[in-house]
């Protein structure tokens, strides 16, 4: 273990952080289609099958991460989640089939399940169907909207308003999110940069919520492995 890795591991609740590794049995570099991504306290959590990766940038240095099983960090959560998002309070919601799970942050590698969960999505999010593919909360707007994506449709859920979903929803993704494909793998909103990342297959797109358009010109579609996870191409 190198000096830098040792420094990170001292502060991270006993789970050592290290650069991503091609030798991992389930590598995000070789197979970078994710189940979903969330940001809690400026740390990215990437979910895929039975694993979660942390992505942390400290002291202006490169990104370090580790992979552990979902159940190590989120007790009683199912593998192969459909989708997940985080609240400003750092609570985290997961969705799979008709069910949702709600967790409270303890520390970066430890969350506790609220009592009464899992329960059906309709309990907490009336009007949202089962089988959600991607979800994120966008705090750029007053009160914050939660966007749920499924197939070619999306729902805008307003936590502070009843009914939570206006009668004009669901709407077509292609009608509102210019350039964003249907059947997403996941999405996450970065409140610091006001960017929305959409993940699909081995690629992602970055949407600027201030300008309400793709945030870079030309080749909007980037590879998740090399451009998001900083994987070094194999020689
Ligand atoms: Ca998903």
Automatic annotation (TrEMBL):
Record key words, sorted: Signal
PROSITE patterns: HEMOPEXIN_2
Keyword Signal set for record: yes
SUPFAM superfamilies: Hemopexin-like domain
Ranges of the Hemopexin repeats in the UniProt entry: 78-128, 129-180, 181-231
InterPro entries xrefs: Heme_transport/Cell_adhesion (IPR051298), Hemopexin-like_dom_sf (IPR036375), Hemopexin-like_repeat (IPR018487)
Pfam families named among the record's database cross-references: Hemopexin
Identification of the protein by name: Matrix metalloproteinase
